[in-house]
Amino acid sequence: MGAHISVPMYQRAVPQRYRLVGLRCRNCGRVNFPPKGVCRYCGVGADFEECRLSGRGTVHSWTLIAGAGAPPEFAAEAACKGSYPVVLVELDEGPRIIAQMVDPPEEGPRIGMRVEAVFRRIYEEEGVIRYGFKFRPMT
Amino acid sequence: MAGRIIACATYVPFLRLTRAEYRKAWGRCAADISEKAVADFDEDAVTMAVEAGRQVLALVDAAGVRVLALASTTLPYAEKMAAGTVAAALGLPEKVTSVELGTSARAGTEALLSALALLGGEEATALVLAADCPAAGPGEDLDHALGAAACAFVLAAGSGGVEFEGAASRVTERLGERFVPRGAVRIRDVGVRTYTGEAYAATVGAVVRDLLERLGRRPGDYRYVVLPQFDGRQTASLGRRLGFTSEQMEAGLIFARVGDTGVCASLLGFCAVLEQASPGDRILVAGYGSGCGGQALSFVVREPVLRPPHGLHYWLERKRYIDYLHYLKLRLKEQLL
Ligand SMILES: [Zn+2]
Predict the structure, then answer these.
(1) B305 with B6: CB under 8 angstroms?
(2) Which CATH architecture is the domain B162-301 placed in?
(3) Most A CBs within 10 Å: which of B11, B40, B41, as the mutation test of the A interface?
């Protein structure tokens, strides 16, 4: 179940994938991430200002992806690491996003654990490295 | 060429491989490390540069950065701008003047000198990023020392901060010492350690003496001396021959804990020194590139640099040990992809 994302599509998302640029709704003030055409919170706001998220948040839930469970673009990574955690994080600005966790503690992630976004290679396709964010435990 | 360092930061990846793992796998460890840092599967020179860069940009305004100098011998693409990836990840202005250096480990000090030159007298800041994760064939002695790390410096024109006082540079022909053929990713050499050691000692020794002569200094005028570290004993013995004491060298000796970090081979130690230096201290830092050339730079501390909450000590202590099999999988990841 690989999720092929074309290079031009990935290119358009560079600001959000590289430095967590979201959109603050001028109607209700909430931050949409990833950016949306119409505010997902108030359902009417379509006027936004760009804002850079702090990347800090809290683990809301998590799961462990092991060997065969990984999508094809992550198969080599899973083969190398054995398994890797994926976390659902509630960012301090409100949005909830899913990403891998790097440098996890020996005992695995914990719900409520504080994390920060870091810049990593996500996967490589057609020889093009796709960079983006993952989460790391904060200390 | 005036200028000063106003901030610095470091990054060391989480994973470590110990000397004992080499002994178990190969019966010996060819490098005088106790452990070395290893980049994870999803790390490369660009991601590590961003890690160090983000820390300094929490201290100074990214919008004021006019110059970006990026140094690495292991940028992920042989052709394609890496500075753009870094600039986009860090939110630097697109109008930044960027340079990428990296045909030898000397690119670290080259980046500092280039940034100072490009800045000129402008009322702006320059960001210098050095990051490297060199690799050799897993069966080669050369590979045992190779580590990974990144550092970031923010430079500004004018006086104050950690002031640049001058530099000396030399370049000459030296065959067969540490090279990567075009199209390859792994370091090779002719395998004669005394031969390569000689080039290092002669070249770094010469630029350090050039610098001291140019500035009218003696070895004792420096509180800290940081020589490039591709091997622990080689660095210590050159320091002694140049007339530096272990007190001058100690704070900048990082090799045994991270390994050979390529373009960071002296800059990481330089950061360690900057974190603890006091006003009035003089610092000498040298760079070396195989094939071969050396550089030596002199600084005087007027005011301490700005530092992020996590200094080098934090990154050195934050770690997880991996076994040799795990390391081997990381070294062979190109074949897994
Ligand atoms: Zn809204």
Answers:
(1) yes
(2) 3-Layer(aba) Sandwich (3.40)
(3) B41
Summarised one tens digit per residue, pLDDT across range A65-96 is 987 778 888 888 888 888 899 999 999 999 99
User: How many residue pairs bridge chain A and chain B with CB atoms within 8 Å of each other?
Assistant: 60
Q: What is the pTM of this model?
A: 0.97
Q: Tens digits of per-residue pLDDT, B158-208?
A: 888 999 999 999 999 999 899 999 988 889 988 788 888 899 999 999 999
Please report, for chain A, the start and end positions of each structural domain, with discontinuous segments joined by +.
55-139
Contacts for B99-104: CB closer than 8 Å, 24+ residues apart:
B99/B68, B99/B69, B99/B70, B100/B70, B100/B71, B100/B72, B100/B75, B101/B69, B101/B70, B101/B71, B102/B71, B102/B72, B102/B73, B102/B74, B102/B75, B102/B263, B103/B73, B103/B289, B104/B73, B104/B289, B104/B290, B104/B291, B104/B292, B104/B293
Which CATH number, 3.30.160, 1.10.287, 1.10.150, 2.40.50, labels domain A55-139?
A: 2.40.50
Of A79, A102, A106, the CB nearest to B42: A102
Say what the ipTM of the complex is. 0.95
Percent of chain A with pLDDT over 90: 78
Question: What residues in B contact A103, CB-CB < 8 Å?
Answer: 14, 40, 318, 320
B318 in contact with A at a CB cutoff of 8 Å? yes
Identify the band that residue A1 occupies on the pLDDT scale cut at 50, 70 and 90: very low
